[in-house]
Amino acid sequence: MTLRVGIIGAGPSGMAQLRAFESARQKGADIPDIMCFEKQDDWGGQWNNSWRIGLDAHGEPVHSSMYRHLWSNGPKECLEFSDYSFDEHFGRPISSFPPREVLFDYIKGRVEKSDVRKYVRFNSVARHTSYNEATQEFTLTVEDLKTNKTETHVFDKLVVATGHFSVPSVPEFKGIKTFPGEVLHAHDFRGAERFYGKNLLMIGSSYSAEDIGMQSHKMGAASITLSYRTTPMAYDWPANTVERPLVTHFSGPTAHFSDGTQGDFDAVVLCTGYQHKYPYLPSELSLKSPNVLYPGNLYKGVVWQQNTNLFYLGAQDQYYTFNMFDAQAWFARDVMTGVIELPSLAERQKNIDAWLERQAALTDHDAEADFQTDYLRELIDATDYPPFDLDAVCQLFKDWMHHKETDILGYRDMLHRSVVTGTMATRHHTRWLNAMDDSMDRYLNGPSQDVDSGSP
Ligand code: FAD
Ligand code: NA0
Questions:
Q1: What's the Enzyme Commission number for this chain (predicted)?
Q2: Does ligand 1 lie within 6 Å of residue 40's CB atom?
Q3: What is the pTM of this model?
């Protein structure tokens, strides 16, 4: 009987899995029966964002945490597919930090070229999974959100590709209940225009705090205070931005910080990260992990230790994104089809433990980039995924982090060279700080919004 593969989620990771099978098919391999279930009405995952907050039109939790005016926070050269370059997609060089819609277009472009959309059932949410040890089959219950009908499907292999930046971690702070202004989590942030002239408090010290904070600055917020639990980001912030240690409590509009300082705020944005949540999986198959580069219990970061018919894609914290999901999908494909033979449980555990030990010793962002580069190298070496110069990409990550240290408002105006095509990015017509229109049309066709450019 043909192998039956179920994929849950058609974000970049699920799309990578579809593409991995398509690549094998194009090379003449027989491929499994594939079904992919996506709860939204289009693919793209986080990149297919919504204006809605809370629940979607079907009463399901809104998946995407992305927002208006979101521009890539890493160089596009670090995430470029090695089998589908930006040059191929856009037909001309573009800048290194495009806005969301442009990257969404790019990831769609590759899969639209191959005939894989037919495998995806849209508006279909995974509700429940069971595994039969005797038959080694998964039974997956899926609800069609348009008809509210449930169906069950049986698979030999199951791929979990539902992302882990969607279900917010929401800590409690004494007195926050009676804070008179707006309190929201980064997941529900949709744009900073309404923060014009406001005094804002961001709790958290990672990408969301940095980006929502600087976006609010760009949109004219009066002040931004970033409150960290462990380590300040310590960028060279604009004059209206400060970092404070953790909030101890609120009294009315006043936040009190652990260094004894305090401040009055109009709004609080909890940039406190996300939870791994897989409500459609039984607990014994469900990954429990903080947001780290190497979650435990996944061999090669992909294969579930106690049940090697189960695969997770994109479960790591991410320096690399699209190309890493590819490498994982290619690896998962080859394990599923028997091209790669897995070592014993004990051998796999030894490999996982070695990575966990190395992870525990990581000291800084450069070391983290090296770590994920080496992880990716191991995956790519194991399959026929088209190799690319990983050391060069790792250096791009380090340059990018250095640029952020020297100019947190200007790093997106820097240019990087593609390791896939050798093409140098072109300067965007508008500096990020002045770019108030994030549409693909404006991005590709201008005119500039820089005041000194001579254009409006
Ligand atoms: P997701 O993109 O989260 O896709 C998961 C898919 O699964 C979704 O389509 C969802 O609808 C579907 N799904 C969920 N539950 C179910 C279910 N029960 N049944 C069926 N379908 C389901 N990366 C970058 O490279 N550059 C950036 O600039 C960048 N910016 C980011 C900004 C934000 C605010 C966030 C949160 C993330 C950002 N990322 C960025 C990282 C981003 O997570 C990855 O680029 C990528 O989207 C991860 O892909 P994924 O497929 O693993 O998960
Ligand atoms: P993210 O920043 O949303 O990025 C996700 C942060 O939350 C850490 O600083 C952590 O502090 C803090 N935190 C957690 N619990 C806390 C508590 N109880 N009190 C105070 N602080 C708390 O989440 P994380 O996990 O990175 O940080 C959590 C993803 O979204 C990233 O992959 C990022 O790339 C992406 N993103 C991208 C963009 C753009 O591209 C914008 C936003 C987000 P501590 O103490 O644990 O360090 C533009």
A1: 1.14.13.148
A2: yes
A3: 0.97
Quote the ligand 2 centre to 272 CA distance (angstroms). 5
Write down the residue that tokens 């953790």 correspond to.
246
Q: Which ligand is nearest to the CA of 329?
A: 1
Question: Using CB atoms within 10 A of its CB, is residue 283 exposed (0-12), middle (13-18) or buried (19+)?
Answer: exposed
| 68 CA distance to ligand 1 middle (Å) | 16
Query: Residue 218 and residue 367: Cα distance in Å, rounded?
Result: 31
- Nearest Cα to Cα of residue 318 among 373, 396, 380: 373
For the chain, the average pLDDT equals: 97
For ligand 1, atom 18, the nearest C-alpha belongs to 126
Query: How far, in Å, is the centroid of ligand 1 from the Cα of 453?
Result: 36
Whether 316 is in the pocket of ligand 2, judged by its Cβ within 6 Å, is: no
Question: Which is nearest to 321 in space by CA: 46, 19, 9?
Answer: 46
Pocket test for ligand 1, best of 162, 326, 396, 438 (most atoms within 8 A of CB): 162
Q: What average pLDDT does the segment 362-375 reach?
A: 97
CB of 292 closer than 8 Å to CB of 355: no
Residue nearest to atom 35 of ligand 2 (CA): 207
Count, in order, helices (H) and strands (E) of the chain.
Answer: 9, 20
- Give 383's pLDDT tier (boundaries 50, 70, 90): very high
DSSP letters, 143-168, are EETTTTEEEEEEESEEEE---SSSEE
Residue 1's pLDDT band (boundaries 50, 70, 90)?
confident
Calculate what percentage of the chain has a pLDDT beyond 70.
Answer: 99
Ranges of H-type helices in 48-199: 86-90, 100-113
- Predicted confidence (pLDDT) per residue in 204-229, tens digit: 999 999 999 999 999 999 999 999 99
Per-residue pLDDT at 454 exceeds 70: no
* pLDDT one-digit tens code per residue, 174-198: 999 999 999 999 999 999 999 999 9
| Nearest of 159, 165, 166 to residue 56 by alpha carbon | 166
Measured in angstroms, how far is the CA atom of residue 207 from the centroid of ligand 2?
A: 6
Cis bond before residue 447 (omega within 30° of 0): yes
- As for the ipTM of the complex, it is 0.98
Ligand 1, atom 45: closest residue by C-alpha: 321
Q: Which residue has the CA at smallest separation from atom 21 of ligand 2?
A: 204
State how far the alpha carbon of 356 is from the alpha carbons of 74, 398, 405, in Å.
Answer: 25, 22, 28
Token pair recorded at residue 295: 């979650």
Using the mean position of ligand 1's atoms as its centre, give its distance from the Cα of residue 347 in Å. Answer: 31
